[in-house]
Amino acid sequence: MITKETCLELLAPFSRSSLEDSKNMAFLNRFDTKFVLRTGGVSGFLKNIANDYSVLQIEDMVIQSYETVYFDTPDLLCFNMHHNKRAQRFKFRTRKYLSNGKIFNEIKQKQNTGKTKKFRQRRDGIPDEIPNPGFPMLPAVKNLSDFDEHFIALVNTHGYGYVGELIPSLNVYFNRVTFLNKNFPERMTLDFGLSYAFNGLEFKLYDTAIVEQKREKGPEKTFSQEYFRSIHKNPSGFSKYTIGISLTHAEARKNRFLPRLRSLAFEREAAA
Question: Which of 147, 177, 220, 265 could bridge 190 with an S-S bond, Cβ 3.0-4.6 Å?
């Protein structure tokens, strides 16, 4: 298990980057590569990349916490597309950045080219210091589980109106550290403290950390990839959504994900 306090100590040697720096590496149309670590491996990972990456700092905070509500059809179309290995698939969610209160409706689309594309819609009602024409002001979402006419418009605009009814299917919480490569256009995230809640149940993954590399171009070699090769760690798919659905929805078909589920250490308890 890794705590925020321990993570902060490990991040002390890293230089800092600003939110403005990170906008140059937003990569809403990108290639993703994921690596799954036990939390005991986070220390070695961070010590080995400290010279080559900076840490994103927002309002004196380098660890950001997220709350996300995912939406799916009543028969879990989005989950089943992933389970059935559909190369082209999608997810719908509302995400809140707890450090600054910003909220976005999002569509995350996996393309058959291997690229991930994201469409976003700002929903917190907080004006940008610098006006952003890509995110026009919309009424704030007061309850992240609300799938309102503005989210419906986003779905329809990008060609997903055929999906039909979308309802809340999963709540996800986690902490994230974002790294920017000093020498190469690459953004990387470290997620830990992952927990799920749905229908009165809560699952906490206390021994899992996820590293995700994000680049506009294909699988260029970066320092972090060299590190993972040195410890014989291969890329590994890990979808927060499909794991969460598998844990919280007894009716979900999850055969494909059982090996991953068996490898996870988690706690199950009643949600508050």
Answer: 177
Q: What is the pTM of this model?
A: 0.91
CA atoms within 13 A on the CB side of 15: 9
CA distance 99 to 123: 15
Query: CA 232 to CA 245: how far, in whole Å?
Result: 29
**Element spanning 36, H or E:** strand 29-38
For the chain, how are helix, strand and coil distributed in percent, rounded to 5? 25, 35, 40
**Beta-strand relationship, 167-181 and 187-198:** antiparallel
Q: Taking 90 as the threshold, does the pLDDT of residue 165 lie above it?
A: yes
Location of structure tokens 């990839």: 225
Q: Look at the block and give the residue holding tokens 């969460």.
A: 244
Query: Angle between the 42-49 and 4-11 helix axes, to the nearest 10 degrees?
Result: 20
For 110-123, the pLDDT digits (tens) are 988 878 889 999 99
